[in-house]
Amino acid sequence: MDSMRPGSARLARLSLLAGTVARGWIGRLRLGGLRIGTPPGSTPPDGTLPDGARILSESHGSGAGHRDYKLYIPSRGHGRRMPLIVMLHGCTQSPDDFAAGTRMNAFAEQLACLVAYPAQSQAANAQKCWNWYSPADQRRDQGEAGLIAGITRQIIRDHAVDPRRVYVAGLSAGGAAAAIMGNAYPDLYAAIGVHSGLACGAAHDLGSALAAMRRGAPVPRRVYAPVPIEGRRILPTIVFHADRDRVVHPRNGDQVIIQAGAADARMAADLRVEVQRGRAPGGGHAFTRTTHLDAAGRPVFEQWVVHGGGHAWSGGSSAGTFTDPLGPDASREMLRFFLQHRSPAA
After folding, report:
1. pLDDT (tens digit per residue) in 55-92
2. Is the distance from CB of 212 to CB of 220 less than 8 angstroms?
């Protein structure tokens, strides 16, 4: 694995483009009686928080190493177990930057969720990319996958987390890492979100990573889950990818959905497919949203293709890097998707 690190700078130069710096739009949505409104930002410019909210700086270590992380604890929801969203940043980003760009803390404040932001170590990757292309970091209880799972379990142990409502999402290299976490830990996460990322196992070294980013890779037959795909539950998955992404080919978004099971007749036979086309308000990007719904009308797979967008967090805020404020808003839609799902067993 260490032999791959010297080439990580080349990968990082390709892995994340600068986003547009303009004000983002976030609409309003009702979900099970909850209203997701328009947050003013993750934190005000002076760094203050809502009364009672906290941001903790923590660390987790294991035989695979250690990683720091930030944890947002909302001001409301105390006294009951809350959902937890684990957010994996892209290359060159930090937890604070990613929180500002996605505005996930502000959404979490409204909905009483905890949000964790693991930080990739610069010692592990010069450009702070998660090493999604390294086989040693793709397997359960090993490498970076084991560290991210360890952070998740540590938060569940130390805070008031509902273990049936734990989710993971990421951007670019972080999106690829989120796909790995879903494959390796379907028992830990109730749903995953992959933004501009790649399927688990799409690459096995730097060369295959660059090839997969340029044109996509065949969906890997092998997954790193603790049980074979024939015996595991469908893991609800939401994907955002722009059709003008010049860094990670849009085909990779299709492959994440395929790997999740949307194309498996045995797993998806009872799902119905709906396709919606629209445009984000205020002259934002057009989009196509394909949803695979179960018998209760819940989305099991959801794929958003953002037309005209590039390699950046859709609908993000200019307070952070690598965002496209023209929407649709990935943070709002991922939270709406996540909160409809619970793990069948804690």
Report:
1. 999 999 998 899 999 999 999 877 899 999 999 999 99
2. no
The token duo for 338 is 């996540």
Q: Pairing mode, if any, of strands 82-88 and 114-118?
A: parallel
CA distances to 67, 148, 150, 260 from 64, rounded to whole Å, are 10, 11, 10, 27
E-assigned strand segments in 38-190: 54-62, 65-73, 82-88, 114-118, 161-171
- 243, two tokens: 């059709």
Contact (Cβ atoms closer than 8 angstroms) between residue 20 and residue 317: no
Distance, C-alpha 141 to centroid of its chain: 19
- 3-state class (DSSP) for residue 70: strand
Give 261's pLDDT tier (boundaries 50, 70, 90): confident
The H or E element that residue 192 is part of is: strand 191-195
pTM here? 0.86
Q: Confirm if 95 and 89 have CB atoms less than 8 A apart.
A: yes
Compute the half-sphere exposure of residue 303: CA atoms within 13 Å on the CB side of its CA: 24
CB atoms within 10 A of CB 194: 34
What is the spatial distance between Cα 15 and Cα 29, in angstroms, rounded to a whole number?
32
For the record, the structure tokens of 150 come out as 């360890």
284-310 pLDDT per residue, tens: 999 999 999 998 899 999 999 999 999
Quick one: which of 241, 236, 244 has its CA closest to 262?
A: 236
Tokens of 139: 């397997």
In terms of Cα–Cα distance, which of 50, 52, 34, 33 is closest to 42?
A: 50
Which of 72-95 are b and which e, b meaning 16 or more Cβ less than 10 Å from the residue's Cβ? Answer: bbbeebeeeebbbbbbbbbbbbbb
Strand partners, 257: none
Give the Cα separation of 262 and 260 in Å (integer): 6
* pLDDT, position 4: 36
Mean pLDDT of the region 105-126? 96
**C-alpha 135, offset from chain centre:** 20
